[in-house]
Write a structure and sequence with these properties.
The structure is a single chain. With 406 residues, the chain is an alpha+beta fold. Helix content is 47%, strand content 8%. The strands form three sheets. Strands 6-5-7-8 form a four-stranded mixed sheet. The protein has a two-stranded antiparallel sheet with strand order 1-2. Helix 11 runs parallel beside helix 14.
Length: 406
């Protein structure tokens, strides 16, 4: 094993439920409530329906529930379906550092395997904390978005680790599971570029499915490649491209806090970087009055570079043609908040994001980096929205941290 394989494998093998803090356990329970709520809210979303139909093409008495039905599917089928449910509305939790993540994406693998393997609630919580810990630590260690890789690549490690934990594997088999998942689970950032498709909802779910399959392969005797992090063609050389500042201690080691406590629950069903901008826009709407929104001449959003790069840079953000593009568009989200006085599921229906009057306001929105916000990125995620009226008056509102931020 290379040193990172040893570090991660030992952590997964050694962590026990009794070593979890009360806060970590409570956070895990809250993330399950949040994730299942947004999952069932997404039940009739097109990508969810597609994966539900897929999951129901196979049956397994020892599998896992296809949530919302009486059907049991093979555990990997259930995983990709439930994962898509959790992610579809872009309302599940978030963690942001060098790389972004939605750590509750791991819940699908944990939930399906815990059911199929007959594990306890404590086993489920423990595996969930493991998954959150590893995905967030990897996000701290290296950014891969600018290198062309999607953040769900790190899910190959986190979901595989949780799966191996639920399988009760010894260290060598944990390593094999992670190695197989990482070797086969590297994902292109193109998923989130330009006009964003329904695949955004399923991208991590497929990575989790792949991780579950890796665990199943290992269960039946398969071994995995060596030196998966530090090898010549391993993750660090190929994906992080030399950058990899992995913490020496993980949650529960020598008093280190658990990362699950640092993740953020969303108030609005939109990309996390927009959350504080929504609060600013809603406050400005009250200030200027709903009737005067039509008199807005220009809107400027000051944000961090990361926010600008992800949801405020590409031309597609000013002309969203899919629900997925709209919920990842700072110009659209701010304009909709100003015009509608809310950001809810209705704002991401096609009839709304194609509305000519709303799109005219979207064209008036400018998004720019504010260096002070970039400098504090990772600790806070502020936005400032400035509205210039046709009569020359300018109104500004800054929001540092949105509701749901720890």
């Amino acid at each position: 094993m290379d040193k990172f394989e040893k570090q991660i494998t030992a952590y997964v093998a050694d962590l026990t439920y009794d070593s979890l803090t009360r806060s970590a356990v409570q956070s895990a329970k809250e993330r399950y409530l949040d994730s299942l709520a947004v999952a069932f809210a997404a039940y009739r979303e097109p990508p969810v329906e597609a994966l539900r139909h897929f999951a129901m093409t196979a049956s397994s008495a020892k599998g896992a529930a296809v949530l919302g039905t009486a059907h049991k599917a093979p555990v990997d089928y259930a995983t990709v379906y439930v994962g898509t449910m959790i992610r579809a509305l872009d309302w599940n939790d978030t963690y942001l550092n060098r790389e972004p993540a939605h750590p509750s994406d791991n819940i699908a693998a944990c939930l399906a395997l815990a059911e199929a393997e007959g594990r306890t609630g404590k086993d489920l919580i423990l595996a969930t904390v493991v998954a959150y810990e590893l995905q967030c630590r990897l996000c701290d260690a290296a950014g891969i978005r600018k290198k062309g890789w999607d953040h769900v690549t790190y899910g190959s490690v986190s979901s595989a680790s949780a799966a191996a934990k639920l399988m009760g594997f010894p260290p060598e088999r944990i390593r094999d599971t992670i190695a197989i998942a990482v070797t086969t689970g590297n994902y292109l950032r193109q998923t989130r570029i330009g006009s964003i498709s329904q695949w955004k909802a399923a991208a991590f779910a497929q990575a989790a499915q792949n991780a579950v399959r890796a665990a199943l392969y290992v269960k039946h005797g398969m071994t995995g490649p060596c030196d998966i992090f530090l090898g010549k063609h391993g993750l660090i050389n190929q994906i992080t491209q030399g950058e990899f500042d992995l913490a020496a201690r993980f949650g529960g080691q020598d008093g280190e806090p658990f990362k699950i406590d640092d993740t953020y629950i969303k108030y609005f069903p939109a990309e996390y970087h927009s959350q504080s901008a929504i609060w600013s826009a809603l406050a400005l709407r009250k200030t200027i009055g709903p009737a005067r929104v039509k008199d807005i001449a220009r809107v400027r959003v000051d944000t961090s570079f990361h926010s600008y790069d992800i949801i405020g840079r590409e031309p597609a953000k000013w002309k969203p043609d899919t629900k997925e593009t709209a919920d990842h568009s700072m110009p659209y989200i701010v304009a909709a908040a100003l015009m509608d006085g809310d950001i809810a599921l209705e704002q991401f229906e096609e009839k709304r994001f194609r509305d000519p009057e709303l799109l005219a306001l979207v064209q008036k929105v400018e998004v720019a980096e504010k260096k002070e916000y970039t400098d504090i990125y990772g600790k806070s995620f502020p936005n400032k929205v400035a509205v210039a009226m046709k009569d020359g008056n300018v109104f500004e509102q800054e929001t540092i941290d949105p509701k749901g931020h720890p």
